[in-house]
Amino acid sequence: MRLTSSLLLASLVLLLLLLPSIEMRAGKGRGLKGARHKRARHELTRDRVRGVRRHSRSGPSRIAAPQCSELTVSGDFFVDCQDQGLNSIPASETWSKQPNHLLFARNRIKILRDGAFLGFESLTSLDLQQNHISLVAEGAFQGLTRLTTLLLQHNRLGTLSEEALISMPNLRYLRLHDNPWDCVCPMDSLIRTLQVPSNRNLGNHARCAEPTRLKGMKLKQIDPEFLCKEKTDPTGNPQGDQTDPTNPVQPIPIRTKPDATTSCHTYLFPQVRMDCSKRGLTEVPRGIPEDVVHIDLSHNSIRHLKARDFQGARGLRSLNISHNNMEHIDTGSLSGLLHLRELDLSNNSLHSVQYGVLEDLYFLLHLKLGGNPWVCDYSIHYMMYWLRLHPGVRYSGLLCRSPLEHTGESVAEYVRSYNRACPKDRQPSRTDPDQTDPELWNTAMEVQGELEEELEPSHLRAPQKYQIIRLS
């Protein structure tokens, strides 16, 4: 009995001695776990604030940090998520208020699932061009009753159901070109919808990529009855795409001039802008929209600007034709661009600009001319004369490349030194009787004439309309 009591007492003492150590370890464990939980909760809160974890209605959520910008223009709320590498549509709660315009161009979105845009009821325009979209569910645009503009060009769509468009009763502009459309029976309903006369701005430039017999044809020109008349073999099974040897496929006619809508990327918001850079163009494309504000034609192979190249772009504000190896600009090629503010002609092969090219650019503010082999002879005087008459134009890069004695010299300094040298065509002629009369020298009229001659090259001067006769 005493032995049992002794053992019980010893065990109790040992337990009391070990209890602080056990509590310390347990407390340490709880502290580490609590610290981890607190840190995880802090990171989750921070991620929600930064918009890192986005729940997407068009696909699985992804961990990303889209640096979308929000801006308000003329009372409309824009959300710009272009070039963010997104593969899904963020939830509508992501932004401070419901957007009127969503810009998702140049991302990695592949699928638009049912209800992808629920919560975006205020949208009037949606830009999804230049993604990897290959599938659009019938209910993808559900709720977009106010949408008027949908841009789906430059994607990977082979088919699209008419049901996808029913959710957008106010749709007026639909871009579908540069998609590999498979013009077979399932496309019947969409093609019928596009061909309704009131839908004149829906899918205007979309063309078939398959089957071979319809390749290159516009969707609006295809007979929808023809699509569902499948050929069958003797057993009654549908045949594949076979070319009828008695009716060979006609080659697609070669266009003499590229079309601006299909050759360039067009962005409608916040201003109409066309990106035609690095498209392999050898001339200015036709069909430039009248309401375009900015055009980028840089990094192509355009060597010659022709008259009326921009005759339809009356509202153009900026024009970039740099890096094109351009050698010549026709008079009248820039005519009608009364609202142009910025013109970039840098890094081309221009030696001079002939008389009259710049005459319509009344409101030009910025002119870039660097990287051209300007030749400082009498042909360069027009450029300097025009710039003197338009002192509000800020220009750069107007330096002599040749002849050797003027290499590196500014064209302005060359023209000044040229005028100081008193050209031969202004030296007095001994056969002119008026020049021998000292009373006619240095009159106010003659001094004004000399100043005008200094500014304007002789081959550009208009013939005199009046002759001053001195009466004794």
From TrEMBL:
Q: Where is this region: Disordered?
A: 231-257
- InterPro entries in the cross-refs: Cys-rich_flank_reg_C, Leu-rich_rpt, Leu-rich_rpt_typical-subtyp, LRR_dom_sf, LRR_TM_domain-containing
Question: Which protein, by its recorded name, is this?
Answer: LRRCT domain-containing protein
Biased-composition ranges for Polar residues? Answer: 234-249
Give UniProt keywords alphabetically.
Leucine-rich repeat, Repeat, Signal
Q: Where is the LRRCT domain?
A: 179-229, 372-423
Signal sequence region: 1-24
Choose one Gene Ontology CC annotation of this protein and give it.
Answer: plasma membrane
Q: Name one Pfam family in it.
A: LRRCT
SUPFAM superfamilies xrefs: L domain-like (SSF52058)
The highest taxon in the source lineage is: Eukaryota
